[in-house]
């Protein structure tokens, strides 16, 4: 093998299909950590080794090793969980994690703070309710996202089924997960047949993401994915999907060759061929992606390196046909619609705002307990949105008043549906204290900043203006900040870059407006802009479009001019 390959490539190659020395790592009682190489491999099993960064320096002073624990990310295609699954995750969070459930920006659950010795019982707990965390993280296809309301129409249901089928088709075939986590102390098999027909033994060069949307809703933010699929329907019948490739948001400060990029629309695929289309794109990235520099290994860089026409030609060759031209479509919003809704079948749905996606109990606001109680009698599903919220879906008529009463008793109703639209649409990534990449706070800080921004918003009569605010603790982009009409990206503790001018539908990236702002600076910069927006906007004009029209920032037309 070439010595230029990145370290992770060498670890994958030697791992015996993701087994490595994980059994030995788990058996080592001297440390709460895994062997170094296993920290790469465990990602493919849906888990990250982390430390409690709030305690790192104190423990160092005391000459203790960092407080190691694990984040685990479940695989929930399309974000649909049964009440039994919700109850189980709720219980696992209490038994083995930090007592909270984190709803992520890719429609799934994370547990944080799981100690090494509790990994197996946690994985086993998932398994008992038919869940797993395979490919939650790692260089494989991740949780497949999809519009949140499959029961809105037959088309939604078909698109959700496609999300599940794509997820199943692209899930790694190795049996390592079952051996390591579900068979107790049993040693992994020594000999393994090559059972990764799609990925091969070194899997992909990098993470890979797929999302599907049914216009006019783009709540899955499909253009930030390696593959984005837009359902095209005619007279209530699903015809197929417009295909977009090469989206991804991560970048590194000081490295302009890294940039967020939205996926390019390359054609239309009939519904029956969508799984095969995804496989073919994945295999091109497997074969052509950069395996030397992980900063440049996402599909977006592969496409920009070879050129879109060359990529399309290869895809058409692997498919055996050329994609038809993309069909017309229109997105209206990438936000969630909060509160009650009903459908033709007489069932109701309730979209609840979950600040920062964190399901927890606070004094006077016991969301976690309320949702656990609801899971005890609800006969529909819990549907996670890509905006870190939850929909109680398919509620029987008799359960509607009961659910509302539970929410009132726990201080959730009506507060969470009557926030400013700014707060309801806001996204913040996890950041501190668990994320190793964070330069600044996000989830723990954004609510306080919003308290102050809400004052400005209300003063200008903008309480119902659903401006998209997105904050992250670093430039990796986990809360999709470059698709925020207001994007705040952490540079250092208490300091953020301010980006403006994405549109409201997830179809235009924003642009850097100011750097290294502290809280006063953020409020100082945003207050006059919000005042101008309130006074001078055109009817229906979104904030992101307004700041571009007024020339505060230039429109970003492609990832390659994001830094311009
Ligand atoms: Fe992310 C890495 C959290 C969605 C781009 N992301 C991480 C890690 C694992 C940090 C690390 O590498 O050590 C974070 C764990 C923090 C923690 O303590 O939980 C983390 N990412 C998250 C979540 C939980 C944010 C949230 O608050 O909801 C989201 C989990 C999604 C899921 O369920 O699978 C999450 N991450 C995203 C998204 C948004 C999306 O996919 O729609 C992005 C931008 C889109 C993209 O992939 O380009 C994203 N995460 C990244 C990157 C940058 C990737 C790149 O191409 O440069 C990293 C760093 C990396 O991969 O090296 C990263
Ligand atoms: Fe961590 Fe950065 Fe992702 Fe936030 S954006 S969760 S700080 S990697």
Any ligands, ions or cofactors bound here, and which?
siroheme, iron/sulfur cluster
Largest sheet: 5 strands, antiparallel
Write down the Rg. Answer: 23 Å
Strands in their spatial order, largest beta sheet? 1-2-5-4-13
Task: Provide a descriptive summary of the structure in words.
The protein is built from 17 helices and 22 strands. The protein has 564 residues and is α+β, with helices and mostly antiparallel strands. Helix 5 (83-96) packs antiparallel against helix 6 (119-128) and helix 9 crosses helix 11 (308-319). The protein has three domains: 139-334, 2-Layer Sandwich (Sulfite Reductase Hemoprotein, domain 1); 339-409, Sulfite Reductase Hemoprotein, domain 2, CATH 3.90.480.10; 421-561, Sulfite Reductase Hemoprotein, domain 1, CATH 3.30.413. It has a five-stranded antiparallel β-sheet with strand order 1-2-5-4-13. Strands 3-16-17-12-11 form a five-stranded antiparallel β-sheet. Strands 6-7-8-9-10 form a five-stranded mixed β-sheet. The chain has helices at residues 7-13, 22-27, 36-44, 56-61, 83-96, 119-128, 154-169, 176-182, 274-288, 299-306, 308-319, 367-375, 399-409, 421-425, 446-459, 519-536, 543-549; strands spanning 47-51, 68-73, 80-81, 101-103, 109-114, 145-146, 210-213, 227-234, 237-245, 264-270, 339-342, 348-352, 358-359, 361-362, 365-366, 381-384, 390-395, 427-428, 469-472, 486-492, 495-500, 511-517. Siroheme is lined by residues 48, 50, 71, 73, 104-106, 108, 110, 142-143, 207, 209, 221, 224, 248-250, 298, 357, 388, 429-430, 434-437, 476-480. Siroheme (SRM) is lined by residues 48, 50, 71, 73, 104-106, 108, 110, 142-143, 207, 209, 221, 224, 248-250, 298, 357, 388, 429-430, 434-437, 476-480.
């Amino acid at each position: 093998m070439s010595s230029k390959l990145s370290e992770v490539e060498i670890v994958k190659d030697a791992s015996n299909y993701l087994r490595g020395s994980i059994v030995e790592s788990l058996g080592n009682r001297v440390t709460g950590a895994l062997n170094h190489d296993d920290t790469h491999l465990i990602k493919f099993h849906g888990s990250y080794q982390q430390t409690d960064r709030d305690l790192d320096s104190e423990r160092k002073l005391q000459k203790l090793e960092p407080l190691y624990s694990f984040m685990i990310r479940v695989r929930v295609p399309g974000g649909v969980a049964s009440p039994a699954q919700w109850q189980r995750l709720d219980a696992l969070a209490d038994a083995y994690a930090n007592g909270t459930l984190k709803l992520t920006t890719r429609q799934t659950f994370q547990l944080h703070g799981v100690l090494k010795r509790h990994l197996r019982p946690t994985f086993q707990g998932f398994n008992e309710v038919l869940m797993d965390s395979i490919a939650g993280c790692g260089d494989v296809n991740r949780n497949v996202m999809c519009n949140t309301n499959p029961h809105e129409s037959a088309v939604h249901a078909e698109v959700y089924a496609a999300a599940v089928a794509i997820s199943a088709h692209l899930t790694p075939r190795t049996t390592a997960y079952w051996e390591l986590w579900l068979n107790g102390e049993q040693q992994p098999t020594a000999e393994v047949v090559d059972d990764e027909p799609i990925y091969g033994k070194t899997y992909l060069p990098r993470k890979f993401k797929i999302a599907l949307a049914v216009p006019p809703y783009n709540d899955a933010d499909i253009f930030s994915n390696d593959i984005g699929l837009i359902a095209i329907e005619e007279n209530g019948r699903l015809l197929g999907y417009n295909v977009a490739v090469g989206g991804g948001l991560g970048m590194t400060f000081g490295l302009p060759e890294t940039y967020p990029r939205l996926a390019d629309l390359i054609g239309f695929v009939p519904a029956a061929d969508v799984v095969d289309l995804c496989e073919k794109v994945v295999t091109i990235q497997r074969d052509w992606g950069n395996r030397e520099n992980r900063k440049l290994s996402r599909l977006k860089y592969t496409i920009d390196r070879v050129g879109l026409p060359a990529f399309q030609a290869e895809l058409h060759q692997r498919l055996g046909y050329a994609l038809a031209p993309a069909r017309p479509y229109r997105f209206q919003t990438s936000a969630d619609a909060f509160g009650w809704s009903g459908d033709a079948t007489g069932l109701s749905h309730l979209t609840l705002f979950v600040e920062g996606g964190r399901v927890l109990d606070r004094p006077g606001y016991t969301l976690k307990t309320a949702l656990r109680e609801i899971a005890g009698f609800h006969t529909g599903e819990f549907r996670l949105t890509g905006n870190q919220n939850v929909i109680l879906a398919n509620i029987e008529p008799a359960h509607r008043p009961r659910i509302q009463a539970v929410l009132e008793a726990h201080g959730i109703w009506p507060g969470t549906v009557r926030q400013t639209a700014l707060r309801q649409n806001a996204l913040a990534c996890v950041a501190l204290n668990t994320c190793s990449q964070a330069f600044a706070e996000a989830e723990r800080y954004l609510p306080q900043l919003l308290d102050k921004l809400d004052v400005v918003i209300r003063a200008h009569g903008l309480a119902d203006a659903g401006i998209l605010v997105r904050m992250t603790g670093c430039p990796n982009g986990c809360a999709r900040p470059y698709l925020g009409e207001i994007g705040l990206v952490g540079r250092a503790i208490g300091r953020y870059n301010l980006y403006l001018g994405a549109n409201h539908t997830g179809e235009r990236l924003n642009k850097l407006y100011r750097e290294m702002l502290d809280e006063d600076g953020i409020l100082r910069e945003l207050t006059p802009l919000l005042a101008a927006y309130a006074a001078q906007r055109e009817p229906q004009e979104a904030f992101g479009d307004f700041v571009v029209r007024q020339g505060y920032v230039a429109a970003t037309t492609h990832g390659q001019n994001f830094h311009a």
